[in-house]
Automatic annotation (TrEMBL), chain A:
Topology class, membrane: Multi-pass membrane protein
Taxonomic source organism: Paracoccus lichenicola
Superkingdom of origin organism: Bacteria
Protein name: Cytochrome B
Subcellular location: Cell membrane
Gene Ontology MF term list: electron transfer activity; heme binding
Keywords: Cell membrane, Membrane, Transmembrane, Transmembrane helix
Single GO cellular component term: plasma membrane
TrEMBL record, chain B:
Source organism of this protein record: Paracoccus lichenicola
Name under which the protein is recorded: Cytochrome c
Keyword Ligase on entry: no
GO aspect biological process, one term: electron transport chain
Positions contributing to heme c binding: 140, 143-144
First and last residue of the signal peptide: 1-21
Any GO MF annotation of the entry: iron ion binding
PROSITE patterns: CYTCII
Highest rank taxon of the organism: Bacteria
Amino acid sequence: MAGGAAHRERIWDPALRVFHWTLAVLVIANWLLGKIGPSDMTLHFWLGYGVIALLVFRLVWGFVGPATARFTRFVRGPRAVVSYAREMIHPHPTYWPGHSPVGALAVVAMLGVLALQVTTGLFADPDDYINVGPLASTVSSETSRMALRWHNRGADLILILVLLHWAVILFYRLWKREDLVRPMIDGWKWVRRR
Amino acid sequence: MIPVKAIALAAALALPTLAAAQDAKDAVEARHGFMKMLGINMGQLAGMAKGEIAYDEAAATLAAANIVALTQYDAPALFVEGTSSEDMPESEALPAIWENPDDFRASFVALREAAAGSPDAVKGGQGNLGPVLQKLGGACKNCHDDYRKDD
């Protein structure tokens, strides 16, 4: 493998780390509130507004934040994705300094699905007169019904993406002997320039 | 067999099926009308609670009394066999209704119980609407979650 020796580097800035863990807590809490929460969903709505704020932050940070946070830096073409995917299956760390080209796909998918989820939530109307999305009255009842349907399906998509996220982290930890969780806590990761 | 007789026989055999199909259509239409009436009265209360409609004690009491009257109707009886969302495109009633008839009926009784006393509870000011709506809307949601298609 090309490149020099691995060294420790601070790859995740504090704002991005706070963003990540806050988003994780809000998404898990809101998923559970949606599935098994009380029939008064006021808290679910407020946490959803929190997710909107986080997504807006991440979008802005993706353009003006530090290098590892920028979309232009980590979203790569198909060649880079395939090349990384080939390397990824081997049982040793990749020492990648940030989101890998494959990881970038997961980042984009997660942010995209969450953006759809909060949008459909704003327009959803479950016909119970208490948990009506704040923008549902601005669209037809067919549209708000469709928003509700996609909001419910979106919950399944989010579950799949989160489980995939955890599975890949375990794969890195157990098969590749690379810890991805610690860097997201303290920011420091073993990396190798190439 | 003479063709005319065959046709008559076929028609006679088909009659019960046609009648059943009409019954099924009627039941679904009645259900939709029932939900619409519930919705109109719930909408009145919700509109006043949100301040979109000016609070009017008499109107609120009447809407709540309408809901009480509607929940006295035996609506679960309208969910006859062969009228699930898998049987008819216009139906939104999940097959789970017929798999859990007791629980479905209990969900409707829960709405009836939520409505009980509401005509008095909505009196006295806009602030009294919230708790009533929470109870009624919660009963709507619980049943929709389990038994209404795609939600």
